[in-house]
Design goal:
The protein has 251 residues and is an alpha/beta fold. The protein has 8 helices and 7 strands. Strand 2, helix 2 and strand 3 form a beta-alpha-beta unit. Helix 3 packs parallel to helix 4. The chain binds NADP nicotinamide-adenine-dinucleotide phosphate. NADP nicotinamide-adenine-dinucleotide phosphate (NAP) binds next to helix 1. Belongs to the short-chain dehydrogenases/reductases (SDR) family. Keywords: Oxidoreductase.
Length: 251
């Protein structure tokens, strides 16, 4: 089960963090992986490491917030890989500031990156998947879309909208052979959360709040993603799976 040989996976935001762990996991199951990020040097380094593990990798630098550039890059790589079977729409950004002083331009930037561009790139890829009658789309949501938290108003709004989009796309894409699901990570140790895991007070709070009493690591998400990306999970669609050490199901 869960053999991905012969399949092609595009993972946005995969030069590090959750996306990199996902590329390793999908590649480890036999998929050809197309990795992405904005920094070509970091992406080349990640590609070298993955190739060292025997994974077939294409490095595709683009900024997901520049939709024209991103679509062009995706169409270009399609000439080489043929089609995309698995799309992990993972890249995301954060801006932390309290609501009453949160700048509108930051709200718009985060919403555009974390929602609008996910919609536009996902739809572009879904059009190709629909023409082949098969596809697996997985979005990266967040527990902050399930539980409110101070200081992340734009991020939470975008991720909650993504959760809604998962259900709506499941309704619309099922007849095309495409499943649409999301993982909702809890607190995972990556560059995105570095200011939090550098903060001993926050970590103490987290260890008290999470039943498993620890930070997550990117590899914690890999098995959930492989499951959602696999042919065998074909009857699972429109679902959001929290991978959070129990945080969102307990008080
Ligand atoms: N870490 C957590 O606790 C947590 C919790 C819930 C949800 N998430 C979500 O998980 C996803 C991955 O987060 P992470 O923690 O792994 O973050 P990360 O360690 O900061 O990695 C982000 C990745 O995305 C790339 N990226 C950032 N902006 C991009 C853009 N505009 N276009 C293309 N690539 C871009 C980065 O490379 P470049 O900088 O080179 O572009 C990097 O490869 C995000 O959607 C995040 O919201 C994370």
């Amino acid at each position: 089960m869960f053999d991905l040989s012969g399949q092609v996976a595009l993972i946005t935001g995969s030069s590090r963090g959750i996306g990199y762990a996902a590329a390793r996991a999908l590649g480890g199951q036999g998929a050809v992986v197309v990795i992405n990020g904005r920094d070509p040097a970091a992406l080349a380094q990640a590609a070298t490491e993955l190739r060292g593990e025997g994974i077939t990798v294409h490095a595709l630098p683009f900024d997901m917030s520049d939709i024209d550039q991103a679509v062009k890059a995706i169409d270009e790589v399609l000439k080489t890989v043929g089609r995309i079977d698995i799309f992990f729409a993972n890249a995301g950004i954060q801006h932390r500031e309290l609501l009453l002083s949160f700048p509108l331009r930051e709200f718009e930037r985060v919403i555009f990156a974390n929602l609008t561009s996910q919609w536009a790139l996902g739809r572009h890829i879904a059009q190709g998947m629909a023409s082949h009658g098969y596809g697996r789309i997985v979005f990266t949501g967040s527990v902050t879309a399930l539980l409110g938290r101070q200081g992340v108003t734009a991020y939470t709004a975008a991720k909650a909208a993504l959760h809604g989009l998962v259900r709506q796309w499941a309704a619309e894409l099922s007849e095309s052979g495409i499943t649409v699901n999301a993982i909702a990570p809890g607190y995972i140790k990556t560059e995105l959360t570095k200011n939090l895991w550098d903060d001993a007070k926050f970590t103490a709070w987290l260890q008290d709040r999470v039943p498993q009493k620890r930070w997550g690591v990117p590899d914690d998400l890999a098995s959930a993603l492989v499951f959602m990306a696999a042919r065998e999970s074909g009857f699972v669609t429109g679902q959001i799976l929290a991978v959070d050490g129990g945080m969102s199901s307990t008080m």
